[in-house]
## 1
Amino acid sequence: MTGAAGGIGRAIVARLRAGGARVAVTDRAVDGLGAEAGFAGDLTDGAFCDALPSRAAETLGGLDILVNNAGIITRGRITEATDEDFRLSMAVNVEAPFRLCRAAIAIMAGAGGGAIVNTSSCWGVHPGPDHPVCVMSKAALSSLTQCLGRFTERF
Ligand SMILES: NC(=O)c1ccc[n+]([C@@H]2O[C@H](COP(=O)([O-])OP(=O)(O)OC[C@H]3O[C@@H](n4cnc5c(N)ncnc54)[C@H](O)[C@@H]3O)[C@@H](O)[C@H]2O)c1
């Protein structure tokens, strides 16, 4: 569960735990989030993302659900967008979920299956005006999600 310290993330963690799930959380800081396991780190670190699913699986004794909830909303018109805005949005909103899905699916497939929830945005499906960096990164995440929903590998 990424973005666990944020507003939506805290609510998802609470609902999952209320439903009986044992939850491993990640965010820049994870103190006080009340989950069964916590891994603090930066999702722009590819190696950190690649290792997270196996670390969670080892700690919890398995991995059934991945929630890619972390995200950043970079606002502003295209003429105001910086190279760093683009790099950071693509790293957090696109590359991190890609890496986490790739690593988690390898584990889930070996165990018979699982579920992945990616938090995109309504603007990832129906772009509004301005905020192009945010809109296109969330569109990429929506597209990844739709693609993986058609995953064809046989378990
Ligand atoms: N709140 C809204 O109105 C809204 C609208 C559309 C989409 N969303 C999406 O919902 C999700 C959750 O949003 P929220 O409102 O709870 O936001 P939030 O800012 O409260 O939480 C996002 C969390 O992601 C974490 N995060 C961001 N970059 C990170 C990084 N590099 N490494 C590790 N953690 C990082 C932050 O620390 C934060 O705890 C996001 O993906 C967001 O884009 C929110």
## 2
Amino acid sequence: MGKVVAIVSQKGGVGKTTTAVNLGASLAALKQKTLIVGHDPQCGVGVSFGIDHKSNGVGLYNFYLGEVPLKATLKPTQMDNLDIIPCNVKTSEEELSFLRIISSNIFILKSNLYQLRNRYDYIIIDCPPTLGTITTASLAAADSFIVPIQLDVFSLNTLGRVIKTAKRIKNSYNSTLKIEGFLLTMVDPQVRLTRKILDETRKNLGNKVFKTIIPRHPSLAEVSQARKPAIFIDVMAIGSRAYLQLAREIIESNQNL
Ligand SMILES: Nc1ncnc2c1ncn2[C@@H]1O[C@H](COP(=O)(O)OP(=O)(O)OP(=O)(O)O)[C@@H](O)[C@H]1O
Ligand SMILES: [Mg+2]
């Protein structure tokens, strides 16, 4: 049975999609059958694999409209062991209907992912920068969640709300939901303030913070333009190695369960 991991944060631009895409690709490179679900109308996951959300292929929106089963939206990628489900919402009207359908049945993704779980070791869900309907449905479907944190004071201030939301969802929709880990992203170790916040984060969040730290590095900024995961551009780049290390950390901690 695959493990479903949602990538969540209400803050925009903290590296959720970068993490979903590069962690997913790294898990696949380490021989884990992996699916990445683009559960965000911004469609970053599809774009990162060269699928334009305006193209006419079948995607998550067609599933939510009841036109196709979730299975029909699976797309293979250039990597062995890695499939994606792109989000293909094209207009703001479609986005509204997308949200309406999800809020009318918050368990629709959970119940349909359930049928796909035996095909994969990991299913990673990329969420939008809100703690609203889509993130709620993603956390209802997930076994665990990762919170990327960009090390600035504002990020730390918003962390409390993510934890509160997860607790609310655990109490109302998903009693077994767990924290997979807080992930420090876009870290620039040369900056003195960063070090201070880093120490403080570790003190406050303890062993829930991944040992792996994702540095700020151009190899990761290139992903959406190159339209492929960083390990496909250069497996030895600092960014590629950081996400491979994160994938190893996650595989190891799940083996120990
Ligand atoms: N470690 C990194 N080093 C350098 N650039 C990065 C890194 N991680 C992400 N980026 C860049 O930062 C920007 C925001 O990243 P990303 O899209 O992953 O964030 P997000 O949390 O998914 O944003 P949104 O909330 O809008 O969905 C992107 O341009 C991405 O290429
Ligand atoms: Mg994103």
